[in-house]
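As a point of orientation, let us examine one representative protein, giving the amino acid sequence and backbone structure tokens.
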Amino acid sequence: MRTSLFSISAIFLTLLFTTFFVPKAFSTDSKVSTELVEDGNQEDGNQEEASENVENEEEGHHSAPAWTVIPFVLLLLMIATGPLFYEHFWHKNYPKIAVVLAVLVVSYYLFVIHNVHSPVHAAFEYIQFISLLASLYIASGGIVIKVNKKSTPIVNIIMLLIGAAVSNLIGTTGASMLLIRPFIRLNKNRIKAYHIIFFIFMVSNIGGSLTPIGDPPLFLGFLKGVPFFWTLEHNWPAWIFALVILSVAFYFLDRRNKSGVEEDEKEVFDNKITINGKRNFLWLIVIIISVFIDPNVFSWVPGITYDGQQFSYIREVIMLSVTYLSYKFAKDKVHELNEFSFEPIREVAFIFVGIFGTMMPALDLVGDFAKSETGAALITHNTLYWGTGVLSGFLDNAPTYLNFLAAAMASQGGSISVLAEVTQFANGGVFYDSVADLTAISIAAVFFGAMTYIGNGPNFMVKSIAEQVGIKMPSFFGYIIRYSIPFLLPLLVLVWLLFIR
């Protein structure tokens, strides 16, 4: 455990050093956030001026050539094939591989095309990403929930639907980390890979569609100016439909599972729910509250200003402090009952260092094309749905959401960097068909995040936790071929036909 914690700490320190010592001056003046908000409330002339300033700033952010996506593609292929064909080598060396590939791409940006902007943004986004995942994982690891009920399809569906609802209150990551172990224990005599996959579908992704807290891309949209309750107002029909369809599919799968019948008959079930480590719920509350301690939400919160954008650091300090304290003061017995280890968060930390570091060229290519005249001409809510969706399955869905929102707004002369314009885009009436466009982007980013293990942060962690307790999970391609294509893809087509088209 100490070795794993040391490895994660080393990543944080490396990224922080890179962030603060790149050849570009930083400012911690929090006035910039206030000015952005004030600019958003001024008249159209000032908004246009703000948009022009943003465009001028972006001129110096050079994009990498197409061939620089090779490290990203190589990393994805190794994630997909490593556990299948060279398992021992992969599990021993994946940290080195991920870091080396990331360093190659970051070095090219810094020293060849002199683009400091993208690596710095990627570093901040990674720190925000891993701080949230690590704090929720370790805090929830000190909570043991036992559901002493007989595992049946209906009981499982109820638990999955509860998890989907809870995802909107504590995020898909928080709900996944809190409930995956109880879900596995509930099905201990009949657990199969499909239990974990449908948990990923319903709790780790689709469940968190209704609030900005639910999923990272929606929270980034909220920070940019999308009203807090916008997602609830516009996403709930697709949310209900998707969960109902997946529940029906899960019911027929689970009903055919006759494993563990003899073991269940020997057990005595009192239908009670017991919770150990309740005080760790306080740590979880602190983490969720800290999510909003952001200079883009409250102008009085200090932040790091870079290229006109405010980045939080107080929030991350709080989360990492909670990570340490919640582990330090948790009872050892609780960790033993949870079979807690640092390996899942260690694996996610290293894998996503590679993903965040190498996916910059892919995001640049997508963004540049979408903002071009050719790309802008292709932008409709249908192409936004499928474009955002497909890329959200293979790139991290949060930056994909921002790229497509920026492209959709740019195609109509708007700027994602002007808060008032983002709000107008969300509310409709100013930009043409903008509500349909944003609905397509929002639903696609969250729903398609379940297409692969790397589409959303919790996916890989849930997989890793399941494997830690001995559940044989499908490979990267096995997940797509056996579950995403036959179960999720038809659902996504139906969602498009009924709610987007």
